[in-house]
Write a structure and sequence with these properties.
heterodimer; A: 344 residues; alpha/beta; Rossmann fold; 7-stranded mixed β-sheet; 7 strands; 58% helix; B: 558 residues; Spore Coat Polysaccharide Biosynthesis Protein SpsA, Chain A; 10-stranded mixed β-sheet; 9-stranded mixed β-sheet; 16 helices; 25 strands; elongated
């Protein structure tokens, strides 16, 4: 099989990585964290001593595995990409095409989002190379992203499964590789028989069917709820009922506080108005007081005048009483009284 | 000679020389000498007229215009030569009372910032008898939009008249109304002088005798009011009144969005026998609002008191679940508290308090009430309420002699009222709470209805609180509802209620700014409220004993 050598892969230069997936493939905390997480899962569940990342790009996974004590290596056919790897892994990452035999063996080979970039014959060659170098391969190749222009070989999962089966590798049905991508698969070299493979797949098929039936039932129930309208009796979780009553309680408190505030405002308005009215009363009373005072003064004057007159009259009386005529008349009166007595 | 206070402007056009002579004499004989009289001859005048105008008094200035240019051109010419602080308009056959200018000068010493003054007036009939006195209310912006009630004698600060552009062309016959609208829009203070200072001579063909004689003047008036609406962004269309000649009415602009109005109706869900039918009042009221209102952006909040059962609540909600909401209030009945509860829960920017024993008559009632309630400077807005038999139940509230009462109560429904005040929007001190619109903002600012008055006076108290804060009350006689009145409540007014009320408002209860001290003496009985006032006065010994206007118009002494 003739292989195409990509000695100068110009389409995988700096521009390719900065525009990767519409976002940047760069040394960012997101990418490092992601591959750190992937490395953790690989180390804890597969415990490889040595690994090879085929199509390692900037070598983030190699770096992460190396950090976790794994003897990790990587290859990529972009010399630009290899020029970007971290200094801790410059020795173990090299420029090389996946179509070339790997030469040595590894506990695990990872091949993440690589095969869709290679033509179908080259991909088959790469798989054969990997199969020669290890017993377990963690593969991820998108079955659905046809947008990316360098994706020249996007295939469904069963396509890859068939190629691996031809090499004696089968999906490890007990290993969930979705921590990497939803379509990631761990292929293991297995000396197995068709009946055993069927058993594995049947078991998985049954589990999936059961799950689907349950989901259908739940969907039906939710639809019925929606059709009955929002007022259909739903068993409310208690916390919602509690929250509702708390809300109602708060609303009634707001109502009461608002009413108190309004009452206070009303009291202020009323007090100011009453003050105004009191001032009006006061002004009228003051008018009344001053008119009474004037009247009072008039009366005092009158009293004074009367006093004067009285005094004068008394003086006059005194003068009259001391006069001769008065005494004479008094004498005459007494005489008349005595006469009346005598006549009795 | 230094500038006088008053420039009396008198356009002259072919007057009866004896009438002209009397008019000039009425100015010359004024008790104050702070005036100049500017007589503008509008085109050549007969020699007898010119003889009367000839005078050696330097205060009389005669301007002769070679060609007749109409009243506006003549008035404008007079304005050009006037030097006084104020201008006053005098027709060439009318009379000023001897103290006209003196009374105004006295007001000026009290209010130096006054820009417009107006006095009461009456008519001189063909025999020279005085009749039909018009005792005007205090400054009523809403009334001026319907009729040139300022009329004569109107005094306008000359600087302000010039600032607004003087007399405008194109408003012949209503040029004074147009000027009054434009000047009062800008005036700092407008003072009413409650004295008859102007005698308007009726003559054949004059508007004084026959309002229909000047159709073109009427049209000019409609245009003047419309241009006022446009200047003030009032969303309304001015038009002639259907029944009263000379009166201008308004239609709220149908495209204008007045926002959501929350109609708040306290109720106990009671029923009453009306016209042989047992009517559930609240159902009837809600149904009439739903059926008759042309404005549709409203919600109805009923506040059901402790008497109301679950059945009543369910029935009310069922009338229209989208628009009608029921609040339960289990506290002892307090009209104020119930209204406030409704207001707190209202979503509308405007609130409309409506009794449950009402029924809508006029379809555009909501637009009209909202239009006025949302005007700047307006607080409460009310409507004319009728008994089911068509007699008037509420025509505004007047405060007089230490009490308060519904104007026109018991009068016949077609009564246009004193100078048509029952068929147009006017200002009163207060209105009934049976139908009261107010913006939520204004309602909140004075703390809503006072809880201290659970049954009576809370509505008047609210209006007076708003009034004290510079928000006038509007009574719209063209908005009408039926009010079955106090069928569900104890109609008795208690002494303690009056005490609380009068403690607050004693001052204004004797000085209603929209009442006129002389109006109570007019022979027209319908103008004055029935004997409710007397009953109120009996409630309290320490009331104000009817001394006329001892403290003058400063209504609120705070």
């Amino acid at each position: 099989m003739q292989t195409q050598e990509h000695e100068t892969p110009s389409e995988y230069g700096a521009a390719y990585y900065t525009n990767y997936f519409g976002g940047r493939y760069e040394r960012s905390s997101e990418w490092l964290n992601f591959f750190g997480g992937v490395a953790d899962r690989i180390v804890t569940s597969l415990r490889p001593q040595s690994t090879m990342d085929v199509g390692c790009a900037y070598g983030f996974l190699v770096e992460a595995l190396a950090k976790r004590g794994v003897n990790a290596a990587g290859i990529d056919f972009s010399d630009y990409a290899i020029s970007q790897v971290h200094e801790s892994v410059t020795e173990t990452c090299s420029v090389r095409s996946a179509t070339e035999p790997l030469g040595t063996t590894y506990d695990l080979i990872t091949c993440i989002e690589v095969l869709e970039h290679i033509s179908a014959p080259d991909a088959q060659l790469a798989i054969a190379n990997m199969a020669q170098a290890t017993d377990q391969i963690l593969l991820s190749s998108t079955p659905q992203d046809f947008e990316e222009p360098t994706h020249i070989n996007v295939q469904p999962v069963e396509y890859w499964a068939q190629l691996f089966a031809e090499q004696g590798f089968f999906r490890d049905l007990n290993f969930d590789a979705t921590f990497l991508t939803p379509w990631a698969v761990l292929f293991r070299r297995e000396d197995t028989s068709l009946p055993r493979v069927v058993v594995g797949y049947e078991r998985e098929l049954f589990r999936t069917r059961l799950e689907r039936t349950e989901l259908r039932k739940e969907t039906k129930r939710l639809w019925a709820l929606l059709e009955d309208g929002p007022l259909a009796p739903v068993d409310e979780p208690t916390d919602i009922a509690v929250l509702r009553s708390e809300r109602d309680e708060l609303l009634s408190q707001i109502e009461a506080v608002t009413q108190d505030l309004w009452s206070a405002r009303d009291a202020i308005q009323g007090a100011i108005a009453a003050k105004g009215s009191a001032k009006g009363h006061l002004a009228l009373s003051q008018m009344e007081v001053s008119s009474l005072r004037a009247e009072h003064e008039e009366w005092e004057k009158t009293i004074y005048v009367v006093h004067e007159e009285l005094h004068a009259a008394k003086e006059e009386l005194k003068r009259i009483k001391s006069s001769r005529a008065w005494q004479l008349s008094q004498g005459a009166t007494l005489a008349a009284k005595g006469k009346r007595k005598l006549l009795g | 000679m230094s500038a006088p206070i008053f420039s009396v402007i008198m356009p002259v056009w072919h007057p009866d020389p004896t009438h002209l002579s009397a008019a000039i004499d009425s100015v010359v004989n004024q008790t104050t000498s702070e005036w100049e009289l500017i007589a503008v001859c509008d085109g050549p005048q007969p020699p007898e007229v010119m003889d009367v105008l000839a005078s050696d008094d330097p205060r009389i200035i005669v301007v002769e215009r070679p060609e007749q240019g109409g009243i506006i051109a003549a008035s404008a010419a007079a304005l050009e030569v006037a030097t006084g602080e104020f201008i006053a308009l005098l027709d060439n056959d009318d009379l000023l009372s001897l103290d006209a200018l003196g009374s105004c000068a006295w007001e000026l010493t009290r209010w130096p910032d006054v820009d417009v003054m107006y006095t009461d007036e009456d008519k001189l009939d063909l025999e020279g008898n005085r009749r039909r006195a018009f005792f005007k209310p205090g400054w009523s912006p809403e009334q001026l939009r319907s009729t040139m009630y300022i009329g004569h004698l109107g005094m306008y600060r000359r600087e302000l008249v010039l600032a607004v552009g003087g007399f405008r062309k194109g408003y012949d016959g209503s040029q004074d109304h147009d000027l009054a609208l434009r000047v009062t829009e800008k005036a700092r203070r407008i003072v009413h002088v409650p004295r008859i200072c102007y005698h308007w001579r009726e003559s054949e063909g004059s508007t004084a005798l026959n309002p229909e004689s000047k159709d073109w003047a009427y049209e000019a008036g409609v245009r003047a009011v419309q241009s006022h609406y446009d200047r003030c962004s009032i969303p309304a269309v001015a038009r002639r009144h259907d029944l009263i000649p000379g009166l201008i009415t308004l239609d709220p602009n149908p495209d204008h969005d007045f926002g959501l109005v929350s109609i708040i109706m306290p109720t106990s869900g009671g029923a009453k026998l009306i016209n042989g039918q047992t009517l559930t009042l609240i159902d009837n009221a809600i149904q009439s609002v739903l059926d008759r209102s042309s404005y549709r952006n409203f919600e109805i909040i009923t506040v059901l008191d402790a008497q109301g059962t679950d059945d009543v609540a369910a029935r009310i909600t069922a009338i229209d679940p989208d628009k009608v909401k029921v609040l339960r209030d289990s506290r002892p009945f307090n009209f104020s508290a119930a209204c406030n509860l409704g207001a707190i829960n209202a979503k509308g920017e405007t609130l409309l308090f409506l009794n449950d024993d009402t029924q809508v008559i006029t379809e555009n009632w909501l637009e009209r009430l909202l239009l006025h309630a949302q005007l700047p400077g307006v607080g409460a807005v009310g409507a004319c309420l009728e008994f089911p038999d068509g007699r008037i139940q509420h025509g505004g509230v007047v405060l007089r002699n230490g009490g308060c009462a519904h104007l026109y109560a018991g009068s016949f429904g077609e009564n246009p009222g004193y100078f048509a005040e029952l068929v147009m929007p006017v200002n009163t001190s207060a209105i009934t709470g049976a139908c009261l619109a107010v913006t939520k903002e204004n309602f909140e600012s004075v703390g809503g209805f006072t809880l201290e008055l659970p049954l009576n006076f809370n509505d008047i108290d609210l209006c007076l609180k708003l009034l004290r804060n510079g928000l006038r009350t509007v009574f719209d006689g063209e908005t009408r509802l039926v009010h079955y009145e106090s069928t569900t409540r104890d109609p008795i007014v208690h002494g303690w209620e009056y005490d609380i009320f009068a403690d607050r408002w004693w001052n204004i209860l004797s000085h209603d700014p929209y009442d006129n001290p002389n109006r109570a003496k007019t022979p027209d009985a319908s103008v004055n409220p029935p004997d409710t006032l007397v009953k109120l006065r009996e409630l309290r010994h320490q009331v104000y004993h009817g001394r006329p206007w001892p403290l003058g118009p400063p209504v609120f002494n705070d």
